[in-house]
Amino acid sequence: MPHATRAGDVLAGRYRLVDLLSESGGGRFWRAHDQILERHVALHVISADDPRADLLQEAARRSATVLDQRILRVLDVERIDHQCFVVNEWGSGTSLDIMLASNGPLSPRRGAWLVSEVADSIAIAHAHGVAHGLLSPENVLLDTNGSVRIIGFCVDAALHGMPPGDPHHDVVDLAGLLHATLTGRWAGVSPSAVPRAPEKHGRVLRPRQVRAGVPRLLDDLCDELLNPRGQPVREVRDLSSARGIQSVLAEFVGDAAGLAAAIAAGNPEKNETVVLPAVPEILARPHPDDWVEPEAETEPEPDPAPRPEPIVDVPTQAGLPIFDDENDEVSWLRARDEPAPPPPPFEEPPERPLFAPEARKPRFPRPDEGPVVARGDEYWPFDQVRSSGSGLIPAVDGIDDTREQVPGRNWMRLAMLIAVGLVLLVAIAIAFNLGRGKTPLGAEPDDNTSTSVSPTPTPEAAPTPITGLTAVDLDPQGDGEENPDQVGAAVDGDPATSWTTLTYKQQLGPGGLKRGVGMVVDLGQPYAVRRVDLTLVGAPTALSLYVSETAPTNPEELTAAAQVQAPTDTVSVELDQAPTGRYVTIWLTSLPRVDGGFKGGIVDVVVAGS
What we know:
This protein is an alpha+beta fold.
């Protein structure tokens, strides 16, 4: 490539290349430093004779006509020294595809708010006759402050060799972005690394069919735009334009306070933010405590500036307002000018003896003795106990019966006694009837009557290993083959043989070259699969199991029967639902680390079912 290829090179005498971020399709994407304006910029560079050079320059000019704070602006475009380059603002944050891969789908309100922000900027661009052209999750950025930024406006499509974008494609991609925030699956027309949304009979499944809890309004909006004859939104709305979509979503979200900060707080990556040199703060008036006497100069000034007098805070006397409704006047409850007098001292409690006598019930006199005088008159609640004169019932002065009588207590006790008596009576009657050889109710017993015994449930039969298995390799995201000559070793029952994957320099998953590889095991006929035992090559390994009636070409279009994180090389997976099918797909999504990269495999597969 004829243009600069090393970090540190200066392009067009102005832009110093700092970091090479990506390189594909004959173009390179750099983080550069503008030496004139002292700021970081994003730099797309291709050869001047590249067929896309004219498209790139024209796309940069169209993008520069749109002024919106969410769009990363085009700052410069030039073709010089056999190079064609476009300079954009530098954005820092986390793209939507990384957010979905790390944190999963967003809540309905957060997802609707994010897409409404994008739709507002797209509507402004469409009003100027400009379309984005490649509105995918990779081009939607959420910075560290929670603001939405849009990347590659017009330029990204030109770098992919695409003609100027169609506004209708942007509208469908907005519905795809909403579907992605709700389900984590991409359903737009632009290419993206986010897994595609599942389809059935050529129609994209509604968000509510992929993930539970999606509001009906958002579900209908996605279905109407992604499927040509989708369910229309219940209310009369204009969904054929970006402005109509933004209006519907903004009304659904309502007050969006706090949503941006909440999404930004959960971002998986905190990318580096470019910080400009600090600007010294210019104070309009120095604080008295911060006053610094100026140093003496060679020629003293004739009239030095006087030192400002310190400001003395005077406490206000205003207090609570008092409103007089009758006279329509307002007065103020002011603070006291003088401190309030101290409270009076507490009165000393009366002296009490160190040891008071224990409280005792009064002793009533016997008939043959006279009145009993209480001892310790100053502490007893009565002076003396006197006889009533009859010799039987004593008369006590000054004592009242203060025992609390609970209403209904006697009736409750009587009811409990009656209930206990009835139970005993019934028990005696049953015992008497059984003693005479009759039934508990007194009837004659039937000779043919036999004690009923509840049938013991038959325990479920243990799953039986299925024999006669065959297997083929599965590599839909590569060249279609993954060591096909070894795949039969995984079902031959011999622990000395195995099927292994190729060695990858990157881990499988959304960030790798492939999202997974695996094999399809043919059971010979449909079975209810209840358990799959695997002996793996190395650990840890992540995998998904699929059971289907037909051999799949892409397992990600199916619903996984189980997802496993295997910390060791042996794992037994119980399928509670016992799905029925002829083909069991073992889809490896994460491989163990080996020398030179990542590599895994399967030594033995045992499928048990009925």
